[in-house]
Amino acid sequence: MEYILIHLGMKQFFFLLLLVGFTMQLSPAQEIKILTYNIYHGENPNRQGDSTFHLISDLLILNQPEVVALQEVDSMTLRSERIYQRKLDFMRQLARETGYKGYFGKAMDFEEGGYGEGLLAKKGAAYHTLPLPNPAGGEPRAMAWVKAELKTLEEFYFGGTHLCHEFAENRKAQLDSILSYAETLDKPVIWVGDLNFTPDSEEYRSIPSHWKEAGREAGNEQATYGTGDGAGRIDYIWYDSRKFELVEYKVLNQVAFSDHYPIWAVLRMKKEE
């Protein structure tokens, strides 16, 4: 009798394994929630010395994106000491507050610390920084990358950057560097950030057609920067349309912690045919 019960138990176990595998095959691909935000180094642009750290932390905890890119991030600078009464590693502290894995990609030395890009991912590895070219001079620029993993174990690369605000020559060279690098990656790619060009610019038009920009695909031309006559759309989420499809896009223009607004998209990874 004991042998029969054990035998039946094993059959039931293998049946359950088969059922779980079949269910996983039928389940839709997981949606990827993305947020990018130029945070004005974590200080209210209208009130000098007023920290926005906890407002940014609360925004991320409330919305729970899988991946986050932040621009204009300070790390251990004198400026952060003036705001927080101590030199602050902004990304490390933000990761502690939110439960994400954080990474700081330094673009340049600044006030005894660093200044550049921040990334957060719920699950990620292979964090690294790609220096970007500056043929016309000006501030150094960089792009931070992570290989992120979804609950379904699918992986993708996510990059965040802040392109040159002064020279179109620099922005074009930086774009060429980003796109060339993206083509070498062995997983689907999403890249985002404050790119300092508008949708009617030569830089925008130069991006190959398989890269889709979430705002344009959604038909949403809302400004991402400034107010009134100074408002414009210069913050973007780009994705490889061969690998992803757009589910949702919005500008969080009720969030006034910076001179930019956060932008948000939800993408779905396409099933391999």
Automatic annotation (TrEMBL):
InterPro entries: Endo/exonu/phosph_ase_sf, Endo/exonuclease/phosphatase, GPI-anchor_lipid_remodeler. It comes from Algoriphagus confluentis. This is Endonuclease/exonuclease/phosphatase domain-containing protein. Residues 35-260 form the Endonuclease/exonuclease/phosphatase domain.
